[in-house]
Structures are given as structure tokens and as C-alpha cells.
Amino acid sequence: MPAEHAHEHAGATHRHPVDFDPTAAGPDPFSAERRADRPLRIGIGGPVGSGKTALTAALCRTLGAETELAVVTNDIYTTEDADFLRRAAVLDTSRIEAVQTGACPHTAIRDDITANLDAVERLQRVHPGLELVLVESGGDNLTAVFSRGLADAQIFVVDVAGGDKVPRKGGPGVTTADLLVINKVDLAERVGADMSVMCADAHRMRGDLPVITQSLTDDPSAGDTANWVRQRLAEWSRSTEPVV
């Protein structure tokens, strides 16, 4: 059952709902109660080194000219990922917020999402027309998933360097994320990963949920993943249209 976390903003106390079980049945993330005249929030998670920040940067470059977009990054003690995005100039620096979790990365995206929601709220105040916020998790293991109170949809990124066994190991990140991205497929031959096995296992573990294979070396625009995000944005926009 969702818990609530109380905190204060500028003298006003309010609560953010926290859903501790992302696999449990819950409200439609595209319902009017969840939309509340705000941007779509997409979480990007995955193990350390899987390419989350590179994917976030690619999505910013590809979608930034057509979408009012901002990013929240998560690191334990640093702002390294946010600093990378700022140096790369993928967005105006005012559109990039950094959260320092001070603990395991999954804590701030699942158990106590306050710091991330605060960062999103700051971005909305500065950019009231925001349509999309990407929330990048710090590197974690295959169990890392976002609370439904923070992310309306989730992308989980794994890479071939971990071997073709990764998808069949399962874990909520692999099995329940709205999109699984198998990254760095251009390295498969070098590391001895069998892509046919990896893809078959991923589809078997995920059922009807989509899987995308990706190489940012071959496609720096992350075209397939960007198109998936565009589809989610279109669904979100349709769901916010007033009923006449």
C-alpha cells in the first residue's frame, strides 16, 4: 500500500505518495489523478556502466529541440552525471538538476523519493512549460526500479559487457520496466556475448514488454529509444486533452 512522506516547501507542508512495490497493481499512471497538469516523468535506471548517462545525453540531443525537456540525475556523493551533461551542453544548464542521494541509489528513486520530487518541482518553477523530465538513477543492480510516485514510465538499461546471461538473471529492472534497452551491442563480438541468446532471454523474461537493442556508437541519436519516448509523450498529451 502506498506510504506518504511529509515534508515542507517554503513554509507549506504537503505529502508525496510513495509506492514501495512497483510490481503491484496500482493506478493508471496516465490517469487524471496522476497527470495533475505536470510533465511526463520517465525514469532511466540500470547497473553502473551500462550507459544510462550516455543514453540520457542522446535523448536530450534528439528530443530537446522538439520537446520542453529537463533532467534530474542521481549520484551518491557527487554531481558527476549532471556535470557531464552540462559540459556536453545537451541542454541549457538551468534544465539539469543533480540529486546527491548519500545512500544506495535505489533509496532515492524508490523508498524516499522526496529529493527527486523536489528537484522536479524546482525545474517546473523555472520552466513552467515542461513536457518531459528524465530522471536518471545512480548505478545499481538488476533490482533497481522507480517508485510509481516518481516515474510514470521506466527505462532499464543493461549492456552486453555484462555477458549474454544478464537478461535471464531477471530482477524487477529487467522484468517489469516499461522498456528494456540492451546497450553497446557493437561490443558483443569483442566480449563474446551472443545477441540472439540475449534477445531471446530478454523477450522470454519480459513477455509482451518491449526490448530495444542499441549502439550509441552506430546511432548516436538513440533513434529507437527516442521514438519510444515520443510515443509515451503522445499518449500523455492525449490523456491531458480536455473532454469537450
Automatic annotation (TrEMBL):
Name the principal localization, coarsely classed: cytoplasm
The entry marks the following residues as binding GTP, namely G46, P47, V48, G49, S50, G51, K52, T53
Task: Specify the CobW/HypB/UreG nucleotide-binding domain's residue ranges.
Answer: 42-212
User: What GO terms in the biological process aspect are recorded for it?
Assistant: urea catabolic process
Annotated InterPro entries: CobW/HypB/UreG_nucleotide-bd, P-loop_NTPase, UreG
Region Disordered: what ranges?
Answer: 1-43
Q: Which GO terms describe its molecular function?
A: GTP binding; GTPase activity; nickel cation binding
Q: Which UniProt keywords apply?
A: Chaperone, Cytoplasm, GTP-binding, Nickel insertion, Nucleotide-binding
| GO cellular component assignments | cytoplasm
Nucleotide-binding is among the record's keywords: yes
| Pfam families, sorted | cobW
State whether keyword GTP-binding applies: yes
Q: Where is the composition biased (Basic and acidic residues)?
A: 1-19, 31-40
Compartments it resides in: Cytoplasm
What binding partners and quaternary form does the record give? Homodimer. UreD, UreF and UreG form a complex that acts as a GTP-hydrolysis-dependent molecular chaperone, activating the urease apoprotein by helping to assemble the nickel containing metallocenter of UreC. The UreE protein probably delivers the nickel.
Q: What does this protein do?
A: Facilitates the functional incorporation of the urease nickel metallocenter. This process requires GTP hydrolysis, probably effectuated by UreG.
| The family this protein is said to belong to | Belongs to the SIMIBI class G3E GTPase family. UreG subfamily.
Give the protein's recorded name: Urease accessory protein UreG
Annotated source species: Actinopolyspora mortivallis
The gene coding this protein = ureG
